[in-house]
Each structure stands twice: as C-alpha cells, then as structure tokens.
Design goal:
The complex is a heterodimer of chains A (115) and B (115). Chain A has 115 residues and is an all-beta fold. Helix content of chain A is 0%, strand content 50%. In chain A, the strands form two sheets. In chain A, strands 2, 4, 5, 6, 9, 10 and 11 form a seven-stranded mixed sheet that branches. A four-stranded antiparallel sheet of chain A has the order 1-3-8-7, with no helix packed on it. In chain A, strand 5 and strand 6 form a beta hairpin. Chain B is globular. Helices cover 0% and strands 53% of the residues of chain B. In chain B, the strands form two sheets. In chain B, strands 2, 4, 5, 9, 10 and 11 form a six-stranded mixed sheet that branches. A five-stranded antiparallel sheet of chain B has the order 1-3-8-7-6, with no helix packed on it. Chain B contains no helices and eleven strands. The chains are: A mainly beta (115), B mainly beta (115). The interface between A and B is medium-sized, with 26 and 25 residues.
Chain lengths: 115, 115
Amino acid sequence: DGGITQSPKYLFRKEGQNVTLSCEQNLNHDAMYWYRQDPGQGLRLIYYSQIVNDFQKGDIAEGYSVSREKKESFPLTVTSAQKNPTAFYLCASSTRPGTGNQPQHFGDGTRLSIL
Amino acid sequence: GENVEQHPSTLSVQEGDSAVIKCTYSDSASNYFPWYKQELGKRPQLIIDIRSNVGEKKDQRIAVTLNKTAKHFSLHITETQPEDSAVYFCAASMEYGGSQGNLIFGKGTKLSVKP
C-alpha cells in the first residue's frame, strides 16, 4: 500500500539508546497501529491510536512509547527499557473503528537490530 | 481477551493442489475476519476478508468460510501456484467494545507450493 511510509527500512540501536521509527500515511485514516513481528510469533500489537491526540497500549507496550500529534503521523520510540528490541516493526492504518470494520493497511516495515 | 489459533504452522502442497488453513477464535463478539499474505521481508497484504453476517466468500481461487457457532474460519486456495508460496495470517476483530477494530492475529502458516 503506497499510502503508508515507514522509515528507515533498517535501523541499528546501541546499548542504552532510544530510537524512533517513523510512520506516515496519506490515506486520511483515523486509526493507526504499531505491531512487532518475531519469527513464529505472528504480529503482536504494541500501541494503537483511533484518533489524533489519543493512543492506547496494546499487548506488549512495555519499553515503547508513541505520540499522535498529527492525523497522518504515528512515530514509535523504542526506549532503552526494551531489552529485546530486535524485530520487524510494522505500522498499519485503517478507517475509524465503529464505522464498519475496515481492513488495516500495512507499511513496508522497519527491521531493528542491536549493535 | 480474544485469542486466535491457526493451523497448520507449515503446509507443503504440489502445484495445482488445494490448500486449506484453519483458524479458531475465542470471543464470540468478534465479527470481522481478514486474511493476510506476507512474502518474505515484505508487508502483509490483505487477500480476503469476511464479516460475521456471511458464511462464505470467494474471490477467484481464494475462498473463506466462517462457522460462527463453532467459532472457526478457514482459507481455501484452489489450483495452487508457486507464487502462492508465502506466510498466511488469519485475524479477528470486533466492531464495538473497548478494543474495537484491533486485530488479533494467528501465528501464521508458511505455505510452500512445489512446482
């Protein structure tokens, strides 16, 4: 889906460092999501936001933080408190829940590794 | 909360044969069930979805069936081709409630189609 852009494609984190993953969408979607994907684990929800200036923790929020200051942007910060950050991170967006379930559309992902 | 189980974890078929992937869900309030295809290193892409007011949906070689009573749904791929090789994820969500719109994913099925 060309409407969701994640950057960078690859990211390396040093010990004790915070890193921020970018997610931008031009689909005019209200809802945005961050998932973590590990081999054999499927996709697990980190944080989600159904509207600007509001976000909620998902199933594995510890060690992560987000902001939603603009409708089109939902950056994810992986903090030093996340002891096992190596994973493939996927951002997704959809129309607002409650208006009739609509599919989530995904970005190309960011692969994060520890140096 | 919702839990989605997916089987099998790996599936190998001969080109031209059919492939079936099954998922079960735990929360009877779930009413939206998408299927995603993910090729290696790429984003998950929606291939078909079904809502709880429908028992079956077809799109060319792909079909999904839903049994609300038993709380399971299945993906059927007929006349498989090598390009169908990928990891397939099922998911479930509910339109209303505290976690409305959030997708709960199965752990994935790696499908290999041998020429």
